[in-house]
Amino acid sequence: MITSTVSPTLIIGLRFFGFWPGVSYSTIYWLSFMSTMLIMQYFQYLYIFNHLKTSELTNLVDSLMTTSIYSLTFLKLVILWIHRRVFHTILADMENDWRECINVDQHLHIMTIKANISHFFSSSLLSFNAIASAFYLLGDYVIRFIFLTKDYNATLRQLPMKIQFPFETQQSPMFECFVVSLFLHAMLQVWSMAILNGLIFALVLHLSGQVDIICQEFRNISRTTLLYGSSLSSFGVLVERHNRIISLSENIEKLFSFIALMQVVWNTLVICCLGFIIIISIHNETGVFALVKTVIAYFSIIMEVFFICFAGEYLGLKGNLIARATYETPWYDIPSNQSKIIIFILLRSQKRLAITAGKMMDMSFETFTSIMKASVSYISVLNAMY
User: Fold this and answer.
1) Which terms does the record give in the GO molecular function aspect (predicted)?
2) What global pTM score does this model have?
3) Alpha-carbon distance 44 to 163, whole Å?
4) How many angstroms separate the CA atoms of 66 and 300, rounded?
5) 37-50 as b/e, with b when 16 or more CB fall inside 10 Å?
6) What are the residue boundaries of the structural domains of the chain, listed by start?
7) Of 209, 193, 159, which Cα lies nearest the Cα of 73?
8) Which residues of the chain are under the pLDDT cut of 50?
9) pLDDT the model gives residue 337
């Protein structure tokens, strides 16, 4: 029996990074991974500063894109660590919700459906990101293998990502060790990025399941009222459940607000960088293979933005269902001293459930459309100028 909206894959990842409650030496796990991230960031930015030339613009943009993704993931993990107590509170509330749902078959059925969707989404997101990242990291090796010429210099072998070390890395077997190490670390970074995105979706699905439960209870209480003429205790339970939904929504907003803001800014920058590489690849000899590699990464970043915007849009739509279900209650058949409770529930329902980007704008389809318009306009200008 499924007893959590958070999938086992996400739980393993959160335990590995030290975010899951009750993990021994969680601080050591988090500091170890963050230390490797900082070391990678130093050498990545060192490459950018040493290749800050107009003649190497393509390499500069390519390195800037991968470095920006690393920086975004690093900041996300820092923010999640700072708000880990809020995260633990959210998990405790979710566990209490599941404990209550087990006793009611209808409620358990609703939450099980949400959990299945969450588990499928988490696995699909992790698989897609892993495949896209593997194509992007190994794409240059495929291009070099296909377009291998007599002028190819074996001493100028390329690492999976644009990075510069202060020591020699071209000689074997050191080069092969660095290739494997960088590839595994990049895949681990992609795994952490997929875990954070899957976590947002899992929390939103859990909250939407609680909204569906409270809407179902409103429909049931109307029939109970008609038959027995008393529903004061049932209204009290619904008010308490509604308060928990609002509290959980506020905690999710507090946890992901600044993460969403960085996601919008950083991903817009990365999309523009990928657009530049796409335009360059179209006019190059190796355009077909470089284009495929870049387009896969482009859609991977777009999907990442889409998922968080979809989560915010879906949460807002679900929040409106509470007001609608409350309004459709036959309040005219309920005693006046009890029907007044419905007014207060309607007033509380006006508080919109949403995920905002730094409390400045809601994450919705409108935000996603604005990001796509900006990136497409940028690519069109580059194509006209090239």
Assistant:
1) odorant binding; olfactory receptor activity
2) 0.85
3) 5
4) 13
5) beebeebbbebbee
6) 84-147+173-385
7) 193
8) 150-155, 226-227
9) 67
